[in-house]
């Protein structure tokens, strides 16, 4: 979270929320393993939606929305011990809120529900599948790289999992627009995740496909010109846009119900569903357009995903990623 102060930036990186508050380090410590646990996941069906751009790496289909909804719950669980699990910014009665890249609009809808006096906009390249939204929530289809049409000065602008959406230059432009469209003293808050999977106890075989997964996609995205390392780079870019008081919180986010800690166990269980539902959608565009040494065929990408999926199911895997 960070502020524009003119407006502050609450930068929460999807578990890389930036903040220096005490007591936040628990998520970044070594996570104790519950020895008595197993994991499993299921697949889902799919329907696609239109998008304003054809160069964004993520799909806009039922499967992706299911993944994003799991991600939404994941982040609520990770911050369930916070005063407001929806955002860190110290805002108690916002009037205008904007959610950039709102996807299914779940975050925007929840914020509108919580603050009935606020007007909450969610904007995305694709129309949201939501059939009902609160009367103070407006889910709009637009490209935030184009001119902004909102007249309001926002109290809070939120982004979550926008990794790989913009080039470095575009990120600079987006943060500047955020700064210019926040009221003085308003906040920007962003949650991102690091796509690299890790383990502390060697349970992740360094030669496994899962261990190489993150770097594979970081490399694809680099070739595409829209880096996926947003979690690592956003703080500097937010500061460069003029925000002050930038705070970052970094979490170790488990995949699987292996941690002992009940909150992390819950988070890990949900995150396994998040990953298992997301794998194929995350992989297809980047591998088939930017895979190395040549773009992969769709079949090659599917076989790879299937193998990674098998690895994810393995017991005794104490894996996590930063967020
Ligand atoms: C990974 S999804 C995250 C969705 C949502 N923030 C969440 O956490 O559930 C990223 C979203 O950003 C949207 N997006 C990408 N580029 C965009 C742009 N230029 N303008 C508006 N939305 C964009 C995509 O369409 C996609 O729905």
TrEMBL record:
GO terms for molecular function: methyltransferase activity. InterPro entries: SAM-dependent_MTases_sf. Residues 31-45 have a biased composition (Acidic residues). Coiled coil: none annotated. CDD domains: AdoMet_MTases (cd02440). Transmembrane segments: none annotated. Residues 19-30 have a biased composition (Basic and acidic residues). Residues 1-45 are annotated as: Disordered. Residues 9-18 have a biased composition (Polar residues). PANTHER family: LAEA-LIKE, PUTATIVE (AFU_ORTHOLOGUE AFUA_8G01930)-RELATED (PTHR43591:SF31), METHYLTRANSFERASE (PTHR43591). This is Methyltransferase domain-containing protein. The lineage of its organism: Eukaryota, Fungi, Dikarya, Ascomycota, Pezizomycotina.
């Amino acid at each position: 979270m960070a502020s524009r102060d003119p407006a502050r930036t609450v930068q929460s990186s999807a578990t890389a929320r930036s903040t220096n508050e005490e007591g936040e380090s628990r998520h970044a410590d070594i996570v104790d393993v519950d020895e008595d646990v197993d994991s499993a996941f299921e697949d889902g069906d799919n329907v696609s939606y239109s998008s304003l751009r054809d160069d964004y790496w993520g799909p806009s289909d039922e499967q992706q929305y299911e993944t994003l909804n799991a991600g939404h719950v994941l982040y609520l669980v990770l911050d369930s011990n916070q005063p407001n699990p929806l955002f860190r910014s110290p805002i108690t009665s916002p009037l205008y809120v904007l959610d950039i890249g709102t996807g299914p609009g779940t975050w925007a809808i929840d914020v509108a529900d919580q603050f009935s006096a606020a007007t909450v906009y969610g904007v995305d390249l694709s129309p949201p599948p939501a059939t009902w939204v609160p009367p103070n929530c407006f889910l709009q289809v637009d490209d935030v790289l184009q001119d902004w049409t909102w007249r309001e000065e926002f109290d809070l602008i939120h982004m979550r999992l926008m990794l790989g959406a913009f080039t470095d230059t575009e990120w600079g432009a987006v943060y500047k627009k955020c700064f210019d469209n926040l009221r003085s003293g308003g906040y920007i808050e962003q949650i991102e995740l690091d796509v690299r999977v890790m383990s502390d106890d060697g349970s992740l075989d360094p030669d496994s496909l899962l261990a190489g997964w993150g770097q594979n996609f970081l490399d694809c995205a680099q070739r595409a010109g829209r880096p996926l390392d947003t979690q690592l780079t956003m703080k500097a870019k937010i500061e460069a846009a003029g925000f002050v008081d930038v705070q970052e919180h970094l979490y170790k986010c488990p995949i699987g119900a292996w941690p002992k800690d009940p909150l992390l166990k819950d988070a890990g269980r949900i995150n396994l569903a998040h990953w298992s539902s997301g794998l194929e959608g995350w992989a297809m565009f980047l591998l088939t357009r930017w895979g190395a040494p040549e773009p992969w065929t769709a079949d090659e990408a599917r076989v790879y995903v299937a193998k990674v999926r098998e690895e994810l199911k393995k017991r005794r895997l104490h894996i996590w990623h930063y967020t």
